[in-house]
Amino acid sequence: MTNQEYLEDTANALVARGKGILAVDESTATCTKRFAELGIVSTVDSRRDYREMLFTTPGIEDYITGAIMYDETIRQNGADGRPLVDVLTAAGVLPGIKVDIGTKPLANAPAETITEGLDGLRDRLNEYRELGARFTKWRAVFTIDHDMPSRYGIETNAHALARYAVLVQEAGLVPIVEPEVLLDGGHDIHWCQEVTEAVLRSVFEQLVAQHCLLEGMVLKPNMVTPGSEYGHQATPSEIAELTLKTLRRCVPAAVPGIAFLSGGQSGEEACENLNAMTSITQLPWQLTFSFGRALQYPAIEIWGGHSTNVPGAQAAFLHRAEMSSAASLGSYSRAREREVRVSG
Ligand code: 13P
To answer: Which residue in 7, 95, 269, 317 has the fewest CB atoms around it within 10 Å?
Structure first.
């Protein structure tokens, strides 16, 4: 099998029909913050126990194709001594790794950010592949405000995303390309649509210019929504219509799949919005989820750092994974959410 065929196989496996990707790649700082909100002490072991709890959920493979880890996690062993990578692989879940090292203020535009991590990336990728990773993630972040994001902020981040993507493919790994336009702010949905379109146009210009194999990548975008401080909520059909319009304008049909981030939406909201998109037929790509918070809550709250709560937390995680899978198939509804919860 050529590297190109291998990449296409991996990308297609990540967006297999009815399944999606678990994002559990919070940096230690972010994980510590989420734990602190719930009164959970953050240590190397408690972070390991939490991730292991998710990975060992019976039935995870029915809904989840891949799990994105953080550098600490990909090096850890579970309670039985097996590397967590092997725990995932044995469950039929592809191991993935976040390879960016976070955001820094952008020079000459300090209110905007640039994602860092390109220096030494080629060597890190080889190490991650040796550790068992099959795919990677890099997140660029864009904030909507008066004159932001600027063209400069969009283009520098798009350039870095494409540099990342082609280095990853060279290493035989599939890049998840994540340009996230944040939900924060008082903007309306049309403003979000314009910004998301400008960002995606620039990202694909750079991916093509840098010879990215489009068939061997997965796009992880935000949904087009009003800002979290905007006065009116949009309906799932408005969100679906504007998100798909934007994606149709910008994302080549050669890309096998689009896996949305949840970006602070609740699990139910994210599922409703995804469902509204997958209910529309004749899309050129597989649409699915790569949720972080929308899959992990309420499981993380139920777990609370106590091993006795593992079965309840795993049931809650599996429930959100099942609902997200239903949303990727266009068969999700709030009624189904309640039915399953009552009977389960
Ligand atoms: P959320 O779904 O919580 O936005 O997390 C997805 C992710 O990977 C952010 O980088």
So the answer is: 269
Indicate the fold that domain 3-339 takes in CATH.
Answer: TIM Barrel (3.20.20)
**Side-chain half-sphere exposure of 44, counting CA atoms within 13 A:** 7
Q: Are strands 257-260 and 286-289 parallel, antiparallel or unpaired?
A: parallel
- pLDDT number for residue 123: 98
The residues that bridge with 95 in the sheet, in sequence order, are: 67
- Asked if 49 contacts 80 with a C-beta cutoff of 8 angstroms, the reply is no
Catalytically active residues, by annotation? 178, 220
Binding site membership of 95 for ligand 1 (Cβ less than 6 Å): no
CA-CA distance, 263 to 187, in Å (whole number)? 16
pTM: 0.97
Distances in whole angstroms, Cα of residue 167 to Cα of each of 98, 124, 139, 282: 14, 11, 15, 32
Q: How far is CA 263 from CA 239, 269, 293, in A?
A: 14, 11, 8
Q: What is the pLDDT of residue 281?
A: 73
Mode of pairing for the β-strands spanning 103-106 and 109-115: antiparallel
As a whole number of angstroms, the distance between CA 322 and CA 283 comes to: 22
pLDDT at 186: 97
- Please give the pLDDT value at position 336: 86
Which residue from 34, 222, 261, 317 has its CB within 8 A of the most atoms of ligand 1, so it is best to mutate?
261
pLDDT (0 to 100) of residue 86: 98
- Is residue 69 within 6 Å of ligand 1 at its C-beta? no
- Parse the chain into domains and list their residue ranges: 3-339
Q: What is the pLDDT of residue 340?
A: 66
Please give the pLDDT value at position 341.
Answer: 60
2 CA distance to ligand 1 middle (Å): 32
The region, left, alpha or beta by phi > 0 then psi within -120 to 50, assigned to residue 108 is left
Closest by CA position to 87, among listed 150, 172, 24:
24
Sequence-distant (≥ 6) Cβ neighbours of residue 208 within 8 angstroms: 214
Here the tokens at position 91 are 């469950």
With a 6 Å cutoff on the Cβ, whether 115 touches ligand 1 is no
